[in-house]
Write a structure and sequence with these properties.
Oligomer: single chain
Shape: elongated
Largest sheet: 6 strands, antiparallel
Mean pLDDT: 84
Helix content: under 10%
Distance between the termini: 68 Å
């Protein structure tokens, strides 16, 4: 079995030599032995919120990637009822015509009607809902 020597960056590592496990291990772990880490979203087994500020988010980005895969996105020619995705996929608003959107960023700001050009984050795309 080969020995792995370390660079002498400290007095301890000057004479450090440990076995290298190249013969018995791979660079990636065995797929059958690896389990995915279950995300709880901050909830326990009863569904109650036990850890705050965990979970949620990314719904607009997920909606954007799904619509892009299905060919429902474009940056022009919006119809009433289309979803405007902005902020690099982090926010969503509903297009109501004449360059205006309805958005609800948070509880403090509430629901507001703004111009499409007055959005605080950069505009990304429209998702056509065909309503």
């Amino acid at each position: 079995m080969a020995l792995k020597t370390y660079r002498p960056l400290t007095p301890v590592s000057r004479f450090k030599a440990l076995p290298s496990f190249e013969e018995i291990t791979k660079t990636k772990p065995e797929k059958a032995l690896v389990r995915t880490l279950k995300k709880t979203g901050g909830r326990n087994n009863r569904g109650r919120l036990t850890s705050r500020h965990i979970g949620g988010g990314h719904s607009a980005r997920g909606m954007y990637t799904w619509a892009r895969m299905h060919g429902l996105t474009s940056r022009s020619n919006p119809q009433i009822g289309d979803i405007a995705i902005y902020g690099n996929g982090t926010h969503a608003a509903i297009y109501i015509g004449h360059g205006r959107v309805v958005s609800a960023l948070n509880r403090r700001v509430g629901i507001r009607v703004t111009s499409l050009h007055a959005l605080t984050a950069p505009f990304t795309t429209f998702i056509h809902t065909h309503i």
